[in-house]
Amino acid sequence: MTTGTPPPSRSATPRRSRVRTFLPLGIAAWLVLEIWLLTVVAGAAGGFTVFLLGLAGIVLGAVVIKRAGRRAFKNLSETLQQQQQQSGAVPAGEQRSGGNGLLMLAGLLLMIPGLISDALGLLLLVPPVRSALSRYTERTIERKMQSAGPGTLGDAFQQARMHRPDGTVIQGEVIKDDGRPAQRPDAGPRPPIAP
């Protein structure tokens, strides 16, 4: 007879999330579907047509990513110039949501070989679809951030977003200087606060 701790019950082990369960299966199914669709198109239209479609997707994807990158850099430059001129934060009315992330995602999907990814990339190039997806994603992220419990990654992001009303974040240590010597047991100098 052995003594020791009993094995953990099923309720003690953390439950695996749906994303971690189904994401590998979804990626595998997507890859199989892409390969099957490429073989069907190659059988119907020829291998050279599939090669030209893949090449066109790579070229169009590179153009879209380059254009989105230039637009993002231009927006960043304008924002920095406005902040230097105003010596403060950009007012809320002047902040722009460029949607460059979704444009870059569209370019990446176009560059990935496959017809389904190309179709999704072309769909993301349509401005109403891109803005609707952007709004949906923003609402979903905000909802997840608000429902984040203590000790989770979402809680860490929520804490990192806390700041003063004017947008300034001041990190430091408060030291009371009331003329009395320090009443600490170690009475040595304090180490600096690590960032």
TrEMBL record:
Signal peptide: none annotated. Residues 167-195 are annotated as: Disordered. Keywords: Membrane, Transmembrane, Transmembrane helix. One of its GO terms (cellular component) is membrane. Residues 174-183 have a biased composition (Basic and acidic residues). InterPro entries: FxsA. It holds the Pfam family FxsA. The chain crosses the membrane at residues 21-38, 44-65, 102-126. The keyword Transmembrane applies. It comes from the Bacteria. PANTHER family: UPF0716 PROTEIN FXSA (PTHR35335:SF1). This is FxsA family protein. It comes from Streptomyces sp. NBC_00119.
